[in-house]
Specification:
It is built from three helices and no strands. With 69 residues, the chain is mainly α. The protein has a domain of 47 residues. Helix 1 runs parallel beside helix 3. The termini are far apart. The relative contact order is 0.16. The mean pLDDT is 86.
């Protein structure tokens, strides 16, 4: 079991990273659900990528999946 002091020491670094991850995921999901088309794959595939692949999934959607509309 990790020592609580290590977690407490790193909390100021972890909180912003977690918030960035959540904001990216929500933004990508909102964009995906509000637009009818995706560039590569299907909407279902992108939902799984966005939700299951932390931080990289939403970034991948914005770079590769978002259509040009």
């Amino acid at each position: 079991m990790p020592d609580m002091t290590i977690i407490q020491e790193n909390l100021p670094l972890l909180i912003p990273l977690v918030l960035i991850q959540i904001v990216l995921m929500i933004a990508a999901l909102i964009h995906l659900l509000n637009h009818p088309n995706v560039k590569h794959g299907s909407k279902i595939m992108w939902i799984f990528i966005i939700v299951l692949i932390n931080t990289i999934g939403p970034i991948a959607y914005f770079l590769f999946g978002r259509s040009e509309e």
